[in-house]
Write a structure and sequence with these properties.
By secondary structure, this protein is of the alpha/beta class. It is about 40% helix and about 25% strand. Strand 9 and strand 10 form a beta hairpin. The longest helix is centred in the C-terminal third of the chain and has 27 residues.
Length: about 270
């Protein structure tokens, strides 16, 4: 497959088990760039063996790390994937066919559809796992990542397109790994809230849990995926509630910020 003036960029930390599959799924990228934040496993060696240029950058937060990555790309057009994501053969073919036309246009970005593999198998009904639209292909001068600690998204003001075929996401190989990620993401989100001086409304927490569960389990059709759907809806609702409990603690006991940060780093959850 001929290469195109596109940079595939992946931000990594201890992703030796995933990075090769991610990089190899984009054979048409003229440049493969990995921004690593101090991995202690074989991530760097594996990435280099699979054709990537590796740049070391201490962790800045999700939005800032992605924006830094953009500055390191050699091409104007960028495809951003996480290490546990990879293109399906159908999407790789669609991109290889459509990219020349897209690159010559004035669009800012393209939305890709993400399909989720959960507990070892694809989700079949749960709507966010069946084709969640995510802006991941973009022109470096026409779009920018939101500068937030977590849950970053691509921001742009202009035309876009949506591609049909999905890319795949191996979502947390086990529930313990999911819970570790929940702890980290909740901590980061709460720090953002603290900087913005968001009020702590603990009274909302039971209702947030219930509504989040109903939204995912019923309206987003998680119940159609059996017990896996129940687990994914319960996990999402627990995350929504835990964020509010942790934020209440931050406001009530500011000393918990430092003690929690030390514990998360000590156990390898944050850095």
């Amino acid at each position: 497959m001929p290469t195109l003036p596109l940079t595939l960029v992946v931000i990594t930390y201890n992703e030796a088990k995933n990075i090769a599959r991610c990089l190899d799924s984009v054979p048409f990228a003229a440049e493969k760039l990995v921004i690593d934040s101090g991995s202690t496993d074989d991530t760097v060696a594996v990435a280099q063996a699979h054709g990537a240029r590796v740049v070391q950058q201490a962790w800045l937060g999700f939005g800032a790390q992605r924006n830094f990555a953009t500055t390191q790309c050699s091409n104007e057009w960028i495809l951003a994937l996480d290490a546990d994501e990879y293109l399906s053969p159908a999407l790789a073919g669609e991109l290889a066919q459509r990219l020349p036309e897209l690159m010559a246009s004035d669009i800012c970005a393209a939305y890709l559809r993400r399909a989720t593999i959960y507990m070892g198998a694809p989700m079949r009904w749960y709507l966010p796992a069946m084709g969640e639209k995510m802006a991941r292909l973009f022109h470096r001068d026409r779009a920018r990542w939101a500068d937030v600690r977590v849950h970053e998204s691509l921001r742009f003001d202009g035309p876009s397109v949506t591609l049909k075929a999905p890319f795949n996401h191996e979502n947390n190989p086990s529930l313990p790994q999911k819970q570790i990620k929940v702890l980290r993401y909740a901590e980061l989100k709460c720090r953002d809230w603290l900087e913005k001086d968001k009020p702590a409304r603990m009274w909302q927490t039971p209702f947030v849990f219930l509504l989040a569960f109903i939204k995912d389990y019923v309206f987003r059709l998680a119940f159609m995926d059996g017990w896996r759907g129940f687990i994914i809806a319960q996990t999402a609702a627990s995350y929504a509630a835990y964020k509010r409990m942790r934020y209440y603690e931050m406001r009530r006991n500011p000393a918990s910020l430092e003690s929690a940060a030390d514990a998360l780093v000590r156990h390898g959850i944050d850095r």
